[in-house]
């Protein structure tokens, strides 16, 4: 179960990163959208090595800024756990 959750969380990070890079948004700009002053926060999330991840408020802010629905950033459970 733990590995399935990790894959699910990894896919959320990959989805956000793909949308960020598609729009040419830097880690710093995304950090600022999330209310942080340093790109280090986003870098920590994107490397998935520091036990830091996006929360629902983050996903809401990102989706709003990118003109998406929060569900566009969250993988379907069946696909994420395979």
UniProtKB/TrEMBL annotation:
Pfam families referenced in this protein's UniProt entry, alphabetically: HTH_3 (PF01381)
Domain HTH cro/C1-type: 16-73
Domain of life: Bacteria
A GO molecular function held by the record: DNA binding
Protein name in the entry: HTH cro/C1-type domain-containing protein
